[in-house]
Amino acid sequence: MSDIATGSDLLWIARGHWEIFIATYLFLGGLSGGAYLTSVVSSELFRPRARGPDEIFACEETSRWGAIVGVLAIAVGGVALLSHLGAPLRALTFPVLFSNFGSWLVIGTWFIVLFALFVTIEAFWLLFGEEHAGSEGLSYVPRWIVARIDDALPLPEGWSIVAALDWLADRLRPTGRARRAVHAVGSVAAVGVIVYTALLLTDVSVVPLWDRQYLPIVFLMSGPSTGISAALLGTVASGGGLSRTNHLFCLADDALIAVETVTLVGLLVALSSGGPAAEQSYELLLSGAYFPHFAVGVLALGLVVPFGLSMTMTGLVRFTDVEHRWGSAFTGGFALKYVLVLAGGFLLRYALLFGAVKQPLGVP
Predict the structure, then answer these.
(1) What does pTM read for this prediction?
(2) What is the tens place of the pLDDT at every residue in 13-27?
(3) What is the number of other CB atoms lying within 10 angstroms of the CB of residue 187?
(4) What CATH architecture does domain 4-129+173-355 belong to?
């Protein structure tokens, strides 16, 4: 079935020329948008209500990790996407050549450019400025790296890259409504990056697996879920595993996982009786070549186990006092949940690409 083959009365078409780079881009694109949304929610909703130094620390670490992860993911994802192109440098001409705004490819490109700008600026504002001088936290690693570069360069006495960046950040960083407006526009771009790839795939109407009714919802849930997991994995590593911030984001992630699971079940039900190509994809995912990736990696280890683990820990935190006595175990449990969600998010894109089967042609 991987090449053109004839059955009794059907002509099967080759499934395509997908490479792992595209699955990597689909994963990192959704993750980057979700991480930025996590950063914005932590800054706008959780940080103003935080009480006590530990909770404030957890909120600020989550904001910074979300922005840093967003920058790294969109940068690496962009390289993965360009590496798939025959002439990657032509992508630089997109402002001139990409003018068909009826295409999700063009719309998505502009979403990526706009989002990359906003998430980079957000990370800059959260890492530099007078208020961040001398601050502690694992998320300040990029600032520490710039400081080490500062020390290594033969700059004139009194000159400092970190000081210059602090000065620039303080003068460019908006406050109040202007900052919220920046977050709002950046969030729109983030959602666009998360979902446009699903809409682009669903334009290929001959692939039943890329169902227009289900796939955008799956991506819209999985992107923020992986973004939360990546950002909160940083917060846990920074020592905020037992914070209220982590608990709230973990519950939000559980809700996303629940909706994503129900949507995937709906997609599988539709595939099971959707015609020859749909049934081929159904078999590939649940009993064929991609059973380990989808049934085990996505459904079991990427959705069911993290949800069950999170619900168990949430119940113990809510109704017992074991969290602080077994702090290390809970911290490890949260870290394990987030790692499983991230692995499942990548395998989801992989299975959706490689398990896609085109509708066969009828042979007269």
Answers:
(1) 0.91
(2) 666 667 788 999 999
(3) 19
(4) Up-down Bundle (1.20)
